[in-house]
Amino acid sequence: MYRTVRLMEAYGLSSLGSNDLPKLDARVMEQCCCIVEESFDFTYKSLRKGGAISALELRVVKHGSFDELMDFYISKGASISQYKLPCCLKTEEAIKILNSGMVGKFFSPKTIS
């Protein structure tokens, strides 16, 4: 079974201390998952309904996490002028960078319409 994970950087968190992070409303974030999932194409929806793809996961990361990821890829030889956020992370180190900045994790409902 495949899993779809979307990442969202929380820009409003940059001025807060690490212990002062606001609580994310789970109901609102689950609605965000549904909206994202509804934007996907027919193939995704068919695979999701058939159980080949599990529930969409939305991870909220603190401000600056995507910059840390870019710094990592540039240190590995990526061109700064050609860099864009990858749609798929394959290295364990890149995944650890984003997981270290995670402030919330939310899932879409078990079934979709």
Which helices and strands occur, and which strands form pairs?
Blueprint: E1 5-10, H1 26-38, H2 42-50, E2 57-62, H3 65-75, H4 92-100, E3 102-107
Parallel strand pairs: 1-2
Antiparallel strand pairs: 2-3
Pfam families: GH3_C
Domain GH3 C-terminal: 25-92
Protein name: GH3 C-terminal domain-containing protein
Descriptive account of the structure:
There is one protein chain. The protein has helices spanning 26-38, 42-50, 65-75, 92-100, and strands at 5-10, 57-62, 102-107. It is of the alpha+beta class and 113 residues long. It has one domain. Helix 3 (65-75) packs antiparallel against helix 4. The longest helix is centred in the N-terminal third of the chain and has 13 residues, at 26-38. The model has no long low-confidence stretch (mean pLDDT 84).
- Say how many strands there are: 3
What shape does the CA trace take? globular
* Order of secondary-structure elements: EHHEHHE
- Mean pLDDT, to the nearest integer, reads 84
Q: Give the count of structural domains.
A: 1
Task: List the keywords.
4 helices, 37% helix, three-stranded mixed β-sheet, alpha+beta, GH3 C-terminal domain-containing protein, 113 residues, GH3, acid-amino acid ligase activity, globular
Describe the structure concisely for a colleague.
The protein is α+β, with helices and mostly antiparallel strands and 113 residues long. It is built from four helices and three strands.
